Amino acid sequence: MNQLTAEAQSAPLLELNDVARAYGDRVVLDGVSLRLHRGECVSLVGENGSGKSTLLRIAAGRDTPTEGSVLFDGHPIDEDSSEVRRRVASAMDIGAFYPDLTVREHLQVVALSHGMGDAAEAAVERVLTAHRLEAQASQVPSALSSGQTQALLLAAAFVRPHDLLILDEPEQRLDSSARRRLAELIAAHRDSGTAVLMATHHQVLNDAADHIVELGSGTTAEVNRESGR
C-alpha cells in the first residue's frame, strides 16, 4: 500500500461541487458532486450519453462547467490551468501522434517535455514493457494495429509524471489479456499514491476501483459500490 500521510489522504485531490454542463439547451450534467483522494480509484459507469466523458473532460481542465466548481488540490481549475496540465495525465481519445517518430521516440518526447530529464529513458522502457509495445518500439504510429495504437495512447499517459490519471474507456480496442494487464497497472498506480478517475464498461477494470459512481442521464452521481479495500 502507499505511504501517504493521514493529512494527504483526508484532503481530496479533486473536488467537483454541484457541477452542471449544458451545450445550448442540452443539459449533459446537472448537479454532480464527486471527491477523489490520493491513492484512490473511482470508476464512472452509465449508459452512453450519461455525461461520463463530459465529466472527465471537466476534471482534466479541458472543459468548464456551466455551473458549480471544480477544485484540484484545493484550487479552482479551468481550461487555462497550467497546474492541471502539469499534474494531470489523461488518455481520453485517440489524438494526433507524431507521424514521423517511432513509438519509442514519441514516448521520449512526451517524457522529456514533462521535465523527466535523465529519467526519461528508463521510464520509456518501463511503459514499453508494461504495455507490450517492445516489438513495436521502432515502428511509426501508422504501422500499428488498433489495439497497439490504444496501448500507445495509454503508454503516453503513464510515462509522464502526474498526481491524477484520467482514463476514458481505456479498454477500447484492447483484447482480454491487455485489459487484465491494464487493470493491474491501474491498481498498482493507485497503490503508489496516484489518484485515478476513469470511465469503463468492463468489470475487470471496475474491480481495480475503490468506488464505482453511476451517472444517470447526467443528473445524478451515486456511489454504487465500495470495494472494501
Question: What's the arrangement of secondary structure elements?
Answer:
Layout: H1 6-10, E1 14-23, E2 26-36, E3 41-45, H2 52-59, E4 67-72, E5 75-76, H3 82-87, E6 88-91, H4 103-113, H5 120-130, H6 146-159, E7 164-168, H7 176-191, E8 195-199, H8 203-206, E9 211-215, E10 221-226
Parallel strand pairs: 3-8, 3-9, 6-7, 7-8
Antiparallel strand pairs: 1-2, 1-4, 4-5, 9-10
Helix pairs in contact: 4-5, 4-6, 5-6
Write up this protein:
By secondary structure, this protein is α/β, with parallel strands linked by helices. The protein has one domain (8-226): Rossmann fold. Helix content is 33%, strand content 26%. The chain has eight helices and ten strands. A six-stranded mixed sheet has the order 6-7-8-3-9-10, sandwiched between helices. Strands 2-1-4-5 form a four-stranded antiparallel sheet, with helices on one face. A hairpin with a 2-residue loop joins strand 4 and strand 5. The longest helix is centred in the C-terminal third of the chain and has 16 residues, at 176-191. The radius of gyration is 17 Å and the shape is globular.
